[in-house]
Design goal:
FAD/NAD(P)-binding domain; 11 helices; alpha+beta
């Protein structure tokens, strides 16, 4: 039976792409060299837009409700609520298991083999790697350090700050139904409740060193989790900023982090990735892959704009010190930004 679409990458965005394709009646193969549930360093907060995408696909992962975002710098704080539905704190492994079960139920063929080469012509794309597969279209969802992006020579060197992410889980009862963002001199730390007795602690920083050294800058937070036991070892990711010259080359479309990534600052990675997966499948289903780049920009420009603005604003130390105060002084601006970013659709 002929294949309509090959998806490279079996993480959440790749599996969501395959599910959208299956719902559209496209026969799809997913290529992922790793088997089983895959963990990754991330904030683990699903924004309302991400939950809406999953609901479209019949997926309802277990976790803890999230009602908003809370900024704090230890002295001042600002809160905003999700006014168009709650988000959810979900372990990355839990989300991946739910998606694997969904693609299996949908009859999607997941093959554990690598992609090592691509060749395309006016009729389709051949993908090599322990044999060869061919389909009219390919979607690359192979992540932050996308081999497809590099193979297609779309990678551009970034001259900006090299920021990394770190994440660990602590056994303690959540104390808030908001995602807490702790702002420091050199880092931001995100605290996300993911179970009734578990929180995820993720740091974004340009400083090199273990997570415990990053957390030492946040005495209020370290006092809060004093005595909590570590459930998972620290896991890292980065550098975060990745630049791609295009999200499409011929019949190959890049979705999620594979198409370029600014920073995890706004927590919108999966929401944007899922929205891009949807519009990529729509473009393929219509036989118009050339429409995908503009559609992808339309569902990600708000997130990219705010992320770049925050990275610029928080670079100078004096601006970083005043950021939370500004959010507290202009609550309608902060609330409006959260409203926009929570639904990148």
């Amino acid at each position: 039976m002929a294949t309509d679409l090959i998806v490279i990458g079996g993480g959440p965005v790749g599996l969501v792409t395959a599910l959208y394709a299956a719902h559209a009646g496209l026969r799809t193969i997913v290529l992922e060299p790793r088997s089983g549930v895959i963990d990754k360093a991330c904030g683990e907060g699903l924004m309302p837009g991400a939950l809406a995408s999953l609901a479209e696909l019949g997926i309802d992962p277990p976790g803890r409700p999230l009602t908003g975002i809370h900024y704090t710098d230890g002295e001042r704080s600002a809160r905003a609520w999700f006014r168009r539905g709650a988000g959810r704190g979900v372990r990355r492994t839990t989300l991946h298991r739910c998606l694997l079960d969904a693609v299996d139920a949908a009859g999607v063929d997941v093959q554990h083999r690598p992609m090592v080469g691509l060749a395309q012509d006016q009729h389709g794309v051949s993908v090599s790697g322990r044999g060869e597969l061919r389909a009219p279209f390919v979607v690359a969802a192979d992540g932050l350090h996308s081999p497809t992006r590099r193979l297609l020579r779309l990678q551009v060197r970034s001259n900006g700050p090299r920021r990394h992410g770190l994440r660990q889980h602590l056994r303690t009862s959540p104390w808030s139904d908001h995602v807490e963002v702790h702002w420091g001199r050199r880092a931001e730390v995100y605290v996300t409740p993911v179970a009734d007795d578990l929180v995820g602690v993720a740091a974004l920083t340009s400083a090199r060193g273990p997570l415990r050294e990053v957390l030492a800058e946040f005495p209020e937070l370290t006092a809060r989790v004093a005595g909590a036991t570590s459930v998972t070892p620290p896991r890292g990711a980065g550098p975060l900023r990745q630049i791609s010259t295009s999200r499409r080359v011929g019949r190959v479309l890049l979705v999620g982090d594979a198409g370029g990534y600014v920073d995890a600052l706004t927590g919108e990675g999966l929401s944007v990735g899922f929205a891009q997966a949807r519009v990529a499948v729509e473009a393929i289903g219509a036989g118009r892959p050339q429409h995908y780049p503009a559609a992808a920009r339309s569902v990600s420009w708000r997130s990219s704009l705010l992320t770049r603005g925050l990275l610029t604003a928080t670079g100078p130390q004096w601006t970083r010190r005043h950021l939370v105060g500004a959010a507290a002084s202009l609550p309608w601006v902060f609330q409006g930004a959260v409203d926009e970013l929570s639904h990148p659709r």
